Fold this sequence. Notes:
The chain has about 250 residues and is mainly α. It has helices spanning about 1-25, 30-70, 95-110, 115-130, 135-145, 155-170, 175-185, 195-205, 210-225, 230-240. The termini are far apart. About 25% of the residues are buried.
Amino acid sequence: MKRELKKQIKQDELVSGFQQASRWTTAHGSEVKVTAAVVAVVALAAFGVTTYLGHRRSEAERAFATALDTFHAPVSTELPEGFEPPPGPVFASAAEKNRKAAAQFDEVARKYGSFDTGRRARYYAALARMDLGEYDPAEKSLSEIAAQRDRGALEASLARLALADLHRRRGLLDKAIEDYRHLIDDSSFVLPRDHVLLELASTLEAARRPVEAGAAYRRIVEEFPGSVYAAEARRRADYLAGGSPARG
C-alpha cells in the first residue's frame, strides 16, 4: 500500500509540474517565442561563423601550400645535367624563386594573419629574404615572431633558431654563439636540442674556438647517443682533440 501511495504521489507531482509549465507558457507566450527566436538566431550565427572560419582556414592552407611549393622548387642551373625536372615550377635562379616565394608568403600573412597559417607564412617569408641576403627585413620579422607571448609556440622557436643562423650568416659569430647557448638552456624552446648543439659546435669551429667546439660535439655524443648527428659529432670531437682525422 505504501509503495502504491508513493507511486501515486510521484505521478501527481509530475502531472502538476506539466500543468504548471503549461500555464506559465500560456501566460508568457510572447516571451517564449522571443526566447526561441533568439536561440535560433544565435545557433544559426554560430553555425555560420564556424562554416566561414572553416572555409577561410582551407583557403589559407591552400595558399600556404602553393607558396611552400615555390619555396622548395628547384632551380634549373642546380639540376644535374640530363635530369628530368620534377613536376611543378622550375626557376631560372634562386633569387627569382625566393622573391616569388616571399611575395606569396607575404600575401598569405596579410590575408590570414589571425590563423596559425598566417604566422607560419611570416616565418617562411623571412627565410626567403634571408636567402636573398635581405637580412634587415628578415631579422625584423623573425624578431617579432620570436617575441610573441607564447614563446613555447613552434613558430617562436623556429624564429629564434633562424635568428641565430641569420647572425652567423652576417658574420656575427659571437652573437650567434650566444643565441644558440640561450636556446639550449631555455625550457620553452620546443625544437630538438641536439640540432642546436650541432649548430653551436660548428659555429664555434668557424669562430676558431676549438676547445669549446669539441666540448659541444661531445655533449651531443654523451647526451644524445641515439641522435642522427652523434656519429659526425664524435668524428669532429676526435679531430679537434687531435685524434683521428675528420671525414665528410
